[in-house]
Specification:
By secondary structure, this protein is of the alpha/beta class. It has three domains: 2-59 and 153-168, TTHA1013/TTHA0281-like (2-Layer Sandwich); 69-141, Type VII secretion system EccB, repeat 3 domain (OB fold (Dihydrolipoamide Acetyltransferase, E2P)), CATH 2.40.50; 196-266, 2-Layer Sandwich (TTHA1013/TTHA0281-like). The protein has helices at 28-34, 47-50, 111-117, 233-238, 251-254, 265-270, and strands spanning 2-8, 11-16, 19-22, 43-44, 54-55, 86-89, 97-100, 106-109, 128-131, 157-158, 163-172, 175-184, 199-206, 214-219, 224-227, 247-250, 258-259, 275-276. The strands form four sheets. Strands 1, 2, 3, 4, 5 and 10 form a six-stranded mixed sheet that branches. The chain is elongated. It starts with a strand and ends with a strand. Pfam families: T7SS_ESX1_EccB.
């Protein structure tokens, strides 16, 4: 995944695709190298910018609870099976590894998880145990892979020095989400909100997650957001919009705009309309 390392409030984060991964503060440089980022110039960002991205699982050394203790009833022909031990089945690709969980199940160890394992439990359990498929045939496969469920399997690739990191609100059939995008760093960027003259938008601004309730919000031609508590289809009609014109957006994006006063249903009827677009 293409990524950028950013800094906010003394913490480092890796932003990639639509997620922000907090980097373990005690091992930041080692964790970033393990994640594939070998040159570092963190970009300072605001909390508002960072919070546009959904939180991912923290990037930190992978530690297996009770590593080094024998698995009850899990002995193989060549000796006991240990919690936290990494095994590789003969004949499979070299990067296909599993790590033994406390219950004896085998959890997939992706290339990224393998690198972070070596900073955690792998400091003391350095050997990869090569076994036949038949030797571990009776062991269960863990329900989840080792490490963060949303860690990219192969780690990250830094954006180039000629690119500036941007947050882009992307829409598809599944809704809207924020993703990492880039723009040439040579292009001048100024802070501000730009709305096409004579246009505005009516959006359902919700919190993160499918179960979050939304607030209908009017964004006018000046880039000011007006919340519409209690709004209904009649409110939408009074504002000159149709229900299909209402977009969906996370509240974190609305937080970047100037806030106007809340508009009641009666006030909305007296508000000058703007073209949908």
């Amino acid at each position: 995944s293409r990524a950028v390392v950013v800094e906010n409030g003394g913490d480092r984060w890796v932003v990639a695709d639509g997620l922000r991964y907090r980097v373990d503060g005690e091992n930041a440089d080692a964790v970033l190298r393990a994640a594939g980022i070998d040159s570092l110039a963190p970009v300072r960002v605001s909390s508002d910018w960072l919070n546009l991205f959904s939180p991912g699982a923290p990037l930190e050394p992978l530690v297996i609870t009770d590593a080094g203790t024998p698995v009850a009833g899990g002995a193989l022909d060549d000796g006991p099976l240990l919690v936290g031990e990494v095994v590789h089945t003969s004949g499979s690709p070299a990067e296909q590894r599993f790590v033994v969980q406390p219950d004896g199940a085998l959890a997939t160890l992706s290339p990224l998880a393998w690198q972070l394992y070596q900073l955690g439990s792998g400091r003391t359990m350095t050997a990869v145990r090569d076994v036949s498929a038949s030797a571990v045939a009776s062991l269960h496969t863990a329900k989840a892979p080792a490490g963060g469920a949303d860690w990219p399997a192969d780690g990250f690739t830094s954006i180039t020095s000629g690119d500036r990191a941007c947050a882009l609100l992307s829409a598809d059939s599944g809704g809207t989400r924020t993703v990492l995008a880039t723009a040439p760093s040579s292009r001048t960027a100024t802070a501000g909100v730009t709305v096409q003259a004579g246009h505005g938008a009516l959006v359902d601004a919700a919190g993160r997650g499918s179960g979050s309730a939304g607030m209908l919000t009017l964004v006018d031609a000046t880039g000011t957001a007006f919340a519409l508590p209690g709004a209904d289809d009649e409110t939408v009609k009074r504002l000159g919009y149709a229900p299909d014109d209402v977009g969906t957006i996370e509240q974190s994006w609305v937080a970047l705009l100037k806030s106007g006063p809340e508009l009641s249903t009666s006030a909305a009827g007296a508000t000058s309309t703007a073209s949908a677009g």
